[in-house]
Amino acid sequence: MDAVLPPGIKREQFASLVADLQKVVGREFVFTDTQWELPAYNDAYLTTPAELHQPSAAVAPANVEELQRVLEVARHYKAPLWTTSTGKNFAYGGPAPRKAGYIVLDLKRMNRILEVNEKHGYAVVEPGVSYMDLYRHLQKIGSKLWVDCAAPGWGGVLPNMTEHGVGYTPYGDHVTMQCGMEVMLADGTLVQTGMGAMPGSQTNHLYKYGFGPSVDGLFTQSNFGVVTKVGMWLMPEPPGYRPYMITFEKESDLHAITEVLRPLKVNMLIPAVAMTVEMLWEAAVQVTRRDYYTGKGPIPDSVRKKMRSDLKIGAWNFYGALYGPPPMMDNTWEVIRDAFASIPGAKFYFDEDRAKDDVAWQYRKKLGAGIPNMTEYNVMNWIPNGAHIDFSPISPVTGVDATKQYELIRDRCNKAGFDYCGEVAVGWRDMHHIFCLTFDRNDAKEKARANKLFGDLVDAAAAAGYGEYRTHLDFMDRIAGTYNWNDSALLRMHEKVKDAVDPSGILSPGKMGIWPKSMRKGRA
Hints:
With about 525 residues, the protein is an alpha+beta fold.
């Protein structure tokens, strides 16, 4: 089967394009085989036909010099690239390109850990470094620094940060913990941001803002450049770590949990990203749906009650951790315990209270200590041929908003015939609601229902004033369209930046709804 061609490029031009890329990186690192090589860049969890995202080729440079030459070739042929690196990001479209015909710019070979600074607590990494890579390296050198990782440990340290990802330790806001960035623009210019713009800078990874406008954020969730290096602050190993779990009996407890949590989080008595997890998420990492129910539609309340009893989980399950010297942890725990004890039926657990084979507890305990693992992907086993797409709106940290968002999603989910599986993560002043829409990837009708449900959720959340913080490839334009205050002033500003730094539209056209001028559809 012939590869799909990049837009505007004829087959003979494509052959020349591939040959020129091979001259840059070597034949073995330009991938064009449609049977074995290119399918590796497909997203197995798509709810739309895979051919809509089929790449024409993939190229994997090893360093910034090769990347510079790859961009030169792409500019010459006006061939659009889609940047990806390590990890899979299957919740949001995986490594598949935004549109068919794009060439995947695969940065997985740029995988060096360039520096670990024990004194100042940071690491400098390239795009291909995964959480597991960095964790193993720190263990190997005897470092006392912790990684803050996403739940799937195969994720990339740099790309997760650029996608506004979060983790589970006090360093869980990854963009906040980023300091110093190296970016290659579409024209091949290499830029150091912040203090790194000064030759011989001694504070490149210590002070975030530099001199003049701070531009690091422009290169997160965008297509304005290729981030080739980033500094990440790492948490020093604390003198004590004590994870805990609190279970709650009733679905309606979400309101009270959120109200109790907010002042504790704002006052930093709970320093890490605080997770309130609905029961099915906890169940799905350790049992399957057919273990308890083989009927159609959402699981009945009677079955949910049986699962909670068997697994010793609540309708909602709060995860947190204490960090620091034991006396400080003891004092902090008294405040936290007394606050949550105001909710009738709350039960409190430490490590010694949970079974050693309690899968949900064990992987959450590891995440709180910055230990990467892949346990969360057990959720895909909840149904046969399991796949998922995540819907991720942001809300204020109030009981009213938490309940409103939960019911908005749950009711539409159940009506469409799906089980609700979700969690809410509270950061500094915000609440990420992560709804894991799980479906059978081999059932075309179920995939279509999942796709429709997702679109309905986008519209319903926007109408209620809740915007998504990241999304799947198929919904980038739709969600960008919901950020339409003042005649979409923000999007139009993004387009002006795109036109200035990448006028040919070489880098990831359409990412986050940002298209180059030549590819816009009727927008002024």
